[in-house]
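To make this tangible, we now present a fold written out as tokens:
***
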Amino acid sequence: MPDKISKIQLQVIEKSLDKMFAKLDIDIDFSGHFLERINDSRNGDQITISELIKIYNSLYKKFGIQISKTPKEVEEVIKSISTDINIPVNIHHDRKTNKIDVVAKTIMRKKNYKTPNDILQVESKVKTFRDFVKEYPY
């Protein structure tokens, strides 16, 4: 089983993500509750550093420009179907830095996560051959 993610590891990840998102004037932040919840046993399998980085890389590629143009404060959920990881975030303009802040409030691994907020689905479920045949029957 993978090790728990430490506060220092999370700070290093946050700084690396800030560098990547800086091109779009976006600042990534993790709340204190995020750190508590990332290592919570209710997630089932431990959420890993590589899963977290992959989700944020996909977020950058798929929604980075859209997020950088967010005109007002919004609550959204970053969702990974393949890992069942959900990250509720607050997105708002920071007047001091003139950047868009994306604050991850919490994180959880949960199938069929329901939310009234908009979803930023960064990846879809990996299709098996059986899924492919169902979608494209001959």
